[in-house]
């Protein structure tokens, strides 16, 4: 068991945090008012522990990423060995390293299931960087094909594709667009397949058709010969775990083929087992031309991301001389060695099938217990990602007046107090636990949400 820090050490670190550290996605004034960040010091399996000795079941796998769970000694050992052998070398100017090459081959093997042409891999360090690569690559591709005016990318409102300028421009979160603009031009945002909010009570197939029609309408209004690609997360994660109707993706794919548009799946959250397949698009049976991946690729043990690219696209890139794009840490050998072993762990422990056949269905069933709760409008999950919608009136999607859009964070804070790390997104609680989560831990996750909803009810009403 980790030893909690002394009171003095905890107080000192919180003071240093406030004085010098700017954490990600934070309201700095609020953080100051709260007396600093929660400092996480230790983790094992699915449990994280903070500096004051409080343990929490990590219902978010860190930030949707620690798929194999915490405390994997063999990943530390692989990193150690690789650092002794070759800690770093780049992949610029006709060089490569063994871990980068072997990892690319391993990813190609996983991508090729049902999509044999998806077999090339470009490395980056984060999901945002992966999407920057996607944007440049797609536009470069169409220029080489002699259609430079095909540079518009269609994305969805409320999509999350990262925090870099390209990532947040591709993303569809309006509150992000208001900071740090102007945005990258040539990105169009269309309707998201968020049934609970935007198609409540509708037939799922008709709702999916309406969302796909919105894409087609936009293609026609911009001009089909100007559209380079469509990008989407198989299941929107940060937008609130938005699981589209099953017919949505095959129809999006058909639309892309109809107009000769590239199909890009952002697999940063859905990749590496989250939906019970190696990649989320494999669940929906579609064949993207390009995919972005990160997070579960290394289970967050080291930063690494990748872009999977079809052979057909690479053949076109070959006609263009240098692709003048890359990062100092593209294919970082230590990160690549850790990612490779991380994938081997998933294979060895059969985590993908376990998610699909055991823990995913178990979570879905456990969440059903919450469906009857007076504050719950909907529970939904696919594999090991899920959401609970909080409503004011049972049987509707009406939110609490006055606190609209904040019920999720309110319940999240109570969950944390009760020993569970989840995320509150607007009026929902979302979860994305490590793929090693046990059935007992799933029960604990669900019953803590239930107890926290009960506790929140008087504050909400
Ligand atoms: N794409 C998706 C779907 C994501 O969920 C995220 C991060 O949550 C990103 C891209 C950005 O990844 P990163 O934070 O590693 O830059």
TrEMBL record:
GO molecular function: transaminase activity
CDD domains: OAT_like
InterPro entries per the UniProt record, alphabetical: Aminotrans_3, Aminotrans_3_PPA_site, PyrdxlP-dep_Trfase, PyrdxlP-dep_Trfase_major, PyrdxlP-dep_Trfase_small
Keyword RNA-binding: no
Keywords, sorted A to Z: Aminotransferase, Pyridoxal phosphate, Transferase
Co-factor requirement: pyridoxal 5'-phosphate
Membrane-crossing residue ranges in chain numbering: none
Domain of life of the organism encoding this protein: Bacteria
PANTHER family (UniProt xref): AMINOTRANSFERASE (PTHR43094), AMINOTRANSFERASE CLASS-III (PTHR43094:SF1)
Family: Belongs to the class-III pyridoxal-phosphate-dependent aminotransferase family.
Official protein name in the record: Aminotransferase
UniProt source species: Asticcacaulis aquaticus
Organism placement in taxonomy: Bacteria, Pseudomonadati, Pseudomonadota, Alphaproteobacteria, Caulobacterales
């Amino acid at each position: 068991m980790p030893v909690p820090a002394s009171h003095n050490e905890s107080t000192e670190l919180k003071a240093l945090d406030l004085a010098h550290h700017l954490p990600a996605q934070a309201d700095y004034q609020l953080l100051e008012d709260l007396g600093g960040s929660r400092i996480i010091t230790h983790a094992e399996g699915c449990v994280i522990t903070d500096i004051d000795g409080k343990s929490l079941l990590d219902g978010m796998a860190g930030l949707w990423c620690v798929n194999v769970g915490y405390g994997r000694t063999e990943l530390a050992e692989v990193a150690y060995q690789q650092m002794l052998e070759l800690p770093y070398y780049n992949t610029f100017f006709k060089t490569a390293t063994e871990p980068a090459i072997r990892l690319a081959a391993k990813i190609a093997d996983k991508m090729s299931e049902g999509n044999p042409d998806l077999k090339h891999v470009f490395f980056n360090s984060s999901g945002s960087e992966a999407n920057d690569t996607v944007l440049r690559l797609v536009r470069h591709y169409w220029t080489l094909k002699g259609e430079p005016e095909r540079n518009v990318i269609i994305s969805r409102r409320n999509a999350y594709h990262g925090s870099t300028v390209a990532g947040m421009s591709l993303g569809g979160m309006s509150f992000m667009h208001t900071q740090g603009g102007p945005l990258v031009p040539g990105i169009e945002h269309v309707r998201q397949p968020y049934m609970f909010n935007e198609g409540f009570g509708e037939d799922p197939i008709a709702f999916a058709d309406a969302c796909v029609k919105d894409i087609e309408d936009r293609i026609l209004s911009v001009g089909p010969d100007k559209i380079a690609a469509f990008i989407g997360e198989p299941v929107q994660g940060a937008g609130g775990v938005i699981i589209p109707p099953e017919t949505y993706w095959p129809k999006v794919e058909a639309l892309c083929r109809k107009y000769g548009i590239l199909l890009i799946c952002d697999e940063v959250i859905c990749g590496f087992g989250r939906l019970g397949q190696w990649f989320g698009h494999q669940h929906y049976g579609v064949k993207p031309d390009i995919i972005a991946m990160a997070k579960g690729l290394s289970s967050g043990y080291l930063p690494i991301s990748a872009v999977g690219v079809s052979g057909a696209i690479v053949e076109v890139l070959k006609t263009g001389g240098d692709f003048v794009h890359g990062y100092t840490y593209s294919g970082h050998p230590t990160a690549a060695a850790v990612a490779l072993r991380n994938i081997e762990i998933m294979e060895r422990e059969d985590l993908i099938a376990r998610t699909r056949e055991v823990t995913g269905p178990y979570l879905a069933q456990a969440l059903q217990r919450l469906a009857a709760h007076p504050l719950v409008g909907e529970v939904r999950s696919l594999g090991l990602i899920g959401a609970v919608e909080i409503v004011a009136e049972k049987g509707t999607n009406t939110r609490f007046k006055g606190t609209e859009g904040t019920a999720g964070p309110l319940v999240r804070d109570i969950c944390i107090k009760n020993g569970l790390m989840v995320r509150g997104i607007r009026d929902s609680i979302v979860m994305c636990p490590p793929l090693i989560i046990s059935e007992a831990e799933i029960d604990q996750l669900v019953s803590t949400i239930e107890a926290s909803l009960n506790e929140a009810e008087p504050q909400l009403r």
